[in-house]
Every structure is written in structure tokens, then in C-alpha cells.
Amino acid sequence: xxxxxxxxxxxxxxxxxxxxxxxxxxxxxxxxxxxxxxxxxxxxxxxxxxxxxxxxxxxxxxxxxxxxxxxxxxxxxxxxxxxxxxxxxxxxxxxxxxxxxxxxxxxxxxxxxxxxxxxxxxxxxxxxxxxxxxxxxxxxxxxxxxxxxxxxxxxxxxxxxxxxxxxxxxxxxxxxxxxxxxxxxxxxxxxxxxxxxxxxxxxxxxxxxxxxxxxxxxxxxxxxxxxxxxxxxxxxxxxxxxxxxxxxxxxxxxxxxxxxxxxxxxxxxxxxxxxxxxxxxxxxxxxxxxxxx
Length: 293
Fold this sequence. Notes:
293 residues; two-stranded antiparallel ribbon; 10 helices; globular
């Protein structure tokens, strides 16, 4: 599973393989207590993060306020639709300590809230059910793991995960942004192509509709690169197909439209409004076929 704000029932929570096909054991360094944190959200990811701590974390649920006098990171492990409520429950003096574990394109929301350089984590670890140890996510093109952290508390996140035997890279903003966009492109391309073909599995998309999904990946990557002013590393299609082989059994569906495919559609709308060609014609056509726009 890909760790998200809620692992159960989410098409973006696919099972990944662990090193050597086993659950990871905490390393000896786990004896060193990680930096205490406030954890917002009591789902599988929030509880797993608490279990990785040293017993000094504060776990809060929906509607509860973030304590003002607790110094340290605030891990936000909720669904995207709950982010406004989380921000409302957090003293503005603590906003710089927020660390977001959500999938999708959060930049417009960050900008609207004045969250400059907000901390983020791209989490690729599986928690099959509450209380079980997490399983690290690796693919044949990323044998060192995929999880990455950015921002003020990136080192604290990495230390916490590594102390439990999980991988985690700390990245500067530009490389993190590129990795975030690749993850977004994977979700938007494989889920859309799968939905077009009656919700086939991710593996079926990679195997049976390879040319279609690669064409869509190229289209979305070009649009994202132009919008964000980034240059992706060569081999994106291969990397995303390798990831899909690692989660081949998982079903496909287009969900959380506003935070995912909706961002690419907004690029299309803006281009057409300017009298330019749609930068994502395949994407737009398939969204219309599914009556999503």
C-alpha cells in the first residue's frame, strides 16, 4: 500500500513490496527517541507515526485544536477535504510547523493560505491494519525506497521513519517538487486510463494499454513542466510503469478530482481561454468521455 491520509478503501494506497519480501524490523537506532510531534488524524498513517515515536507524541482527531505550547512538528494525516478544518484548528503561530502527508497537487491551496515553503512528505509505506508494523515501498527502479520529505522538519521525519527501518530521503524544494509531480502524473494517468477501460487494474493498464498510458504520461509531464518551470529526469515513463508493476493488483478509479486530475484540467481551461491549444487533449477527451467535466 501507498501510505496516504487514509489507507483503507483508497485506490492510492497500493501494496508495495518490502525489502526481501518481509516486513521491516526496527533498527538498533530505534532506541533513540524521535522528535516529539503533534499528529493530526487517527487513521492508519497517523497511528503508525505515533507508534514510531518515543511515547511523547500528541495524537488529535477531527475538530480538536492543535496545542499552542507543544514545540515540534505537526504531522497532518487527514484527507485533503479536511485541510481547511485542520488549518482553522491550528494557531497561526504554528503554521510553519505543519507537515502535510497528503497526495495530490497542494500548491494552489498552499498559495491561497499563505503557507510559504510548507513541509510535505511523499509517503510510500504500507500499513495493512492499525498496530501492524509498516512495510517499506520499493520498486525495481527505486530499490532504495521512494519516500521523501521536504521542509523545516524533513530531517525529523526522516529520522523517525529510519528509526523504524523505513527509507526516507530529505530533498530540497526543486527535486521534491519534481518527485511530487511525478507521483501526481502517475495517479492521474494510470487511474484515468484504467477508468476509461471499466476500472481495470493498474497492472492491466501497464500491460494491455501501455501505449495509451505512456502517451498520457508524456502529455501530462509536458504540461506540468511548462506550468512549473521544471525539467524532469529522463525515463519517467519507465519509472512510472515500474511502479505500476509493483502495485499491479490494485484497481483504478478517478477520485479527489479537485486535487488531482482537476489541476491538469485547469491548465487546459486556462490555455483555451487564452486562445491556445489544449496542452492535454487526451486527458480532456477522456475526462469528457467519463462525464467528469
